[in-house]
Write a structure and sequence with these properties.
Blueprint: E1 4-7, E2 10-13, E3 16-17, H1 18-25, E4 29-33, H2 34-48, E5 53-58, H3 65-73, E6 77-80, H4 83-91, E7 99-101, H5 108-117, E8 121-124, H6 127-140, E9 144-151, E10 173-174, H7 178-187, E11 191-197, H8 208-226, E12 233-235, H9 252-263, E13 269-272, H10 276-279, E14 283-294, E15 299-303, H11 312-316, E16 322-324, E17 333-338, E18 347-354, E19 361-364, E20 385-390, E21 393-398, H12 403-407
Parallel strand pairs: 4-20, 5-6, 5-13, 6-7, 7-8, 8-9, 9-10, 9-11, 11-12, 12-13, 15-17
Antiparallel strand pairs: 1-2, 2-3, 4-14, 14-15, 14-19, 16-19, 17-18, 20-21
Bound molecules: ligand LLP.
Pathway: Amino-acid biosynthesis; L-lysine biosynthesis via DAP pathway; L-lysine from DL-2,6-diaminopimelate: step 1/1
Binding site for pyridoxal 5'-phosphate: 239, 273-276, 370
Cofactor: pyridoxal 5'-phosphate
C-alpha cells in the first residue's frame, strides 16, 4: 500500500496535499510518511514473528534522528557503519544492545566507544580489524561479541556499484578463508564469537542469490561446529529491493519464509539489516520547475533539485519516477529534468513524458533511501529540509541549511 496517492487530481502524502507542503516549506524538500516507515518496518518484525532475532535498520539509508526515534519506539535494532551513526542512534533513543556495527574501516576510537556503550555485535570485515578489536577490547577490559562478515562469492545480479558479495569486492572475508579466521578469533582475548554475517548487495529483486548465500553460510556453520565453534546467530544483511519502476521484488514475508524453510530447526537467531526496503518508498523529493529550455537536441526542464540533493541518477543511472504534484491536461512532451549544478551528469530523470509549465512542482518518487543521506553541499547549495507527515500533520524534522551552516568551521587566514 502506498501512502503517496492521487486524490481529486493532486498528489497527497497521507492526508496532506504535497503542493501545500511545497508552497509552505519551499523546495527542494524531502517529505516522508510516518505510516509508510512504520508499515515497512513492521513487515519485517511480523515476518520474523516468534523466531529469535532482530531487525537492525541500516542507518545509512536514512539517518534522520526523528526517523531513527520512530523505529526505536517500534522496537527496531540498528545497523551502523560509523561512530557518527552510533551517536545518531544513541541520540535518537535507540537501544545500544540492539546495534550491530558493520563496515570495512572501523577505527580504534569507534570500536572503543561502541564497546563502552555495549553494542550487540561487531560485524568484522578483515583479519587486521579482528586483531585491532581484540586489542581495543582488552585495553577497555571488555569483551567484543563478533560475527565475521563473510563474502560468499555470489552474484547479486544488481548494479556493480551496489553489489558486494563477489570475490572481487572489498567487503567481508573470503568464505574459504573464514574457518581459519574463526579459529584465530577463538584464540583471541577480548573476543567472543557469536555469529556469521553477509550482505551480498543492494536492490536485489530475486530470492535465489539470497538463498545461495544462505546455503553457503549454513555449510560454513556446520564446518565450524565440527571444529567446536558454535554460531548463535546468522545475519543476512540487507539488500531486499523495492519497486522504482516495474521491478517486482519478493515480499518480505516470502523472503523470510524461504530462509526459515532452509534453516529448519537449527538453533540460530536471525538478523537482518534492511535499509532501502524500509525507507525508499516512504519518501519523496519535492522540486520546482525553474525554467523550460527546449533545444534542438533535448527539451530541458531545469528544476531546483540537483545531483547534490539526490545523487542516485548521476551515480548509478538510477531511475526514479517523477510525478507532477498536480498533473496538467494537454499533450505531453519528452523532458530531461536537470538541476542547476555545473555538471553534465546533473540530472534526476531523462526522457520523461510530462506536461510541464514553469513553476510546476514535481515529486521525485522512492526518494526516502539514499537520498538525503548522500546529499552534499556541492556548488554551495544548501541541503534540503526534511519533513515528516503523520496523518494531517507536517513536522519539520530537519531545517533547510543556511549559508552560515554551510561555512561553519571554515576560517580565512590572517596573512
Ligand atoms: N548492511 C550492510 C552491511 C550494507 O552495506 C548495506 C548497504 C545494508 C545493510 C542495507 O542495504 P539495503 O537494505 O538498503 O539494500 N547508495 C546505494 C545503495 C548502497 C548500499 C550500501 N550498503 C543506492 O542508492 O542505491
Amino acid at each position: 500500500m502506498s501512502f503517496f496517492t492521487e486524490r481529486s487530481g493532486e498528489l497527497y502524502v497521507e492526508d496532506v496535499r504535497l503542493n501545500d507542503i511545497a508552497e509552505k516549506y519551499g523546495t527542494p524538500a524531502y517529505v516522508y510518511s510516518r505510516a509508510a516507515f512504520t508499515q515497512h518496518y513492521l513487515a519485517y518484525a511480523q515476518a520474523l514473528g516468534q523466531h529469535p532475532g532482530m531487525i537492525c535498520y541500516a542507518v545509512k539509508a536514512n539517518s534522520n534522528i526523528a526517523l531513527l526515534n520512530l523505529l526505536a519506539r517500534l522496537g527496531a535494532g540498528f545497523d551502523i557503519v560509523s561512530g557518527g551513526e552510533l551517536e545518531r542512534v544513541l541520540t535518537a533513543g535507540g537501544d545500544p544492545k540492539r546495534i550491530v556495527f558493520s563496515g570495512v574501516g572501523k577505527t580504534a576510537q569507534e570500536m572503543a566507544k561502541a564497546l563502552k556503550v555495549g553494542i550487540y555485535c561487531f560485524n568484522v570485515e578483515s583479519e587486521p580489524e579482528l586483531e585491532l578489536l581484540s586489542r581495543v577490547a582488552q585495553a577497555e577490559g571488555l569483551t567484543a561479541r563478533i560475527s565475521l562478515r563473510v563474502n560468499p562469492d555470489v552474484d547479486a545480479g544488481t548494479h556493480p556499484y551496489i553489489s558486494t558479495g563477489l570475490k572481487e569486492n572489498k567487503f567481508g572475508i573470503d568464505i574459504d578463508r573464514a574457518p581459519a579466521v574463526y579459529r584465530r578469533a577463538a584464540e583471541l582475548s577480548g573476543i567472543e564469537i557469536h555469529g556469521v554475517d553477509c550482505h551480498i548487495g543492494s536492490q536485489l529483486t530475486e530470492l535465489p542469490p539470497f538463498l545461495d548465500a544462505l546455503d553457503r553460510l549454513l555449510l560454513l556453520i556446520d564446518n565450524l561446529a565440527e571444529q567446536g565453534i558454535t554460531i548463535r546467530h546468522l545475519d543476512l544483511g540487507g539488500g531486499l529491493g523495492v519497486t522504482y519502476k516495474d521491478e517486482q521484488p519478493p515480499a518480505v514475508n516470502d523472503y523470510m519464509d524461504a530462509l526459515k524453510a532452509k534453516i529448519g530447526d537449527r538453533d540460530l537467531a536471525l538478523m537482518f539489516e534492511p535499509g532501502r526496503s524500509i525507507a525508499a518508498n516512504a519518501g519523496v523529493l519535492l522540486t520546482k520547475v525553474l525554467f523550460l529550455k527546449p533545444t534542438e537536441a533535448h527539451n530541458f526542464a531545469i528544476i531546483d533539485a540537483a545531483m547534490n540533493d539526490n545523487i542516485r541518477p548521476a551515480l548509478y543511472q538510477a531511475w526514479q519516477e517523477i510525478r507532477p504534484l498536480k498533473p496538467r491536461p494537454g499533450k505531453a512532451q519528452r523532458w530531461d529534468l536537470v538541476g542547476p549544478v555545473c555538471e553534465t551528469g546533473d540530472f534526476l530523470g531523462k526522457d520523461r513524458e510530462l506536461v510541464l509549465v514553469e513553476g510546476d512542482n514535481l515529486a521525485v518518487m522512492s526518494a526516502g533511501a539514499y537520498g538525503f543521506t548522500m546529499s552534499s553541499n556541492y556548488n554551495t547549495r544548501a541541503r534540503a529540509c526534511e519533513l515528516l507527515v503523520d496523518g494531517d500533520q507536517v513536522h519539520i524534522i530537519r531545517e533547510r541549511e543556511s549559508f552560515v551552516d554551510m561555512i561553519r568551521g571554515e576560517h580565512v587566514i590572517e596573512q
